[in-house]
Amino acid sequence: MFELLIKSIQDKVPSTEEELHLCKTHFTPKRLRRKQFLLQEGDVCNRMAFIEKGALYSYTTDAKGGQRVMQFAFEGFWISDLYSFFTREESKLNIEALEDCELLLLDHEQHDYLLKNVRQYETYIRILYQNAYVALQQRIEGTLGLTAEEKYSHLVEQYATIVNRVPQHLIASYLGITPETLSRIRKQMASR
Amino acid sequence: MFELLIKSIQDKVPSTEEELHLCKTHFTPKRLRRKQFLLQEGDVCNRMAFIEKGALYSYTTDAKGGQRVMQFAFEGFWISDLYSFFTREESKLNIEALEDCELLLLDHEQHDYLLKNVRQYETYIRILYQNAYVALQQRIEGTLGLTAEEKYSHLVEQYATIVNRVPQHLIASYLGITPETLSRIRKQMASR
DNA sequence: ATTTCTTCTTGACATATGTCAAGATTTCTC
DNA sequence: GAGAAATCTTGACATATGTCAAGAAGAAAT
């Protein structure tokens, strides 16, 4: 149940069994079925989720009721609405399971407790944010001012997992283009 | 010279005079004139810069030689290419002064030293990344799948400083639109 | 297996934004 | 303060992408 989390921590910060065990005890396991929600807009996001198995995605709803996909997350990654988590303001995000999931949840108090009392944990979180920041930066690089085809090519190169496990219309939304455009681009790319 | 940096740290992590002094001794002050570079693409980024005064921006160069603006940064903020900084790979970014600047530089070894030896510093950096991550997330929210006018309105609301201190054509690039389009949008918005 | 829901494709057409080119402003520099 | 850069505006036109609508294909549910 905790394999990937332990691996994720060990990869970034060498830790003793004791420290790892202490961490473990603060997480709450949870299963989520496809289409179920981890967070719904309007609620305050009170937890971060580490994904042991499955896939989720987060999105906002625009004026016309359409989805705008913000993030995809798979095994070994974290997902949350950090803005709401830290500010305690209502979230504008929905986080929904794309597949049946096994999650490890960490709520606000537990997160604070670990930060204060387990130095390794703070280091782990720092490195996590560091990587997450760089990843977002690269996402912007791979999106901004590019044509729809360039955006999609970039995604295929950098994030093959997404292309393989996620419905096309969600990928389109993630790239900021319409499903129709994406369909046409793929057809065109295939014929070359 | 160190006022804003001290303020930035104190705001996030209560620290003693001693800790603050220890931090200070690891930074190197540097002045930069308008149009001078802090980093040029092809070089490895070996430092992070805290801005005591002035403004800078970072950008990549695309196939046709055009600029694609990634970030603007003003007094009280940090700028760097974290990807290159951490991976030690060549940077694809240029970081250029928009105005005459006073910077405090921290190179890789000094950063590592502080992380290891000053717990407050690690906490400071963690919170910094946390905020930076949330800010990037919001940038994506304010860009993705929006019309040019919506993107610009969002910028005006959220980042008035940028609109006031940065040339329009760089703002256009930052939003992923052309200067001509931005000019037309502004005209149209003014007449309402 | 049949039905139902979800996802993907395709066509015809509309529109936002880009491109190119020229001139008008504004801002810097000496 | 004059000249040179840099920046911003405007027009005419091209084009990528969006919109709407319908049907096909695929996956999930009973």
From TrEMBL, chains A, B:
Residue stretches making up the Cyclic nucleotide-binding domain: 1-115
Pfam family, one: cNMP_binding
Gene3D superfamilies linked to this entry: Jelly Rolls (2.60.120.10), Winged helix-like DNA-binding domain superfamily/Winged helix DNA-binding domain (1.10.10.10)
InterPro entries the UniProt entry points to: cNMP-bd_dom, cNMP-bd_dom_sf, RmlC-like_jellyroll, WH-like_DNA-bd_sf
Protein name from the UniProt record: Crp/Fnr family transcriptional regulator
Species: Lacibacter luteus
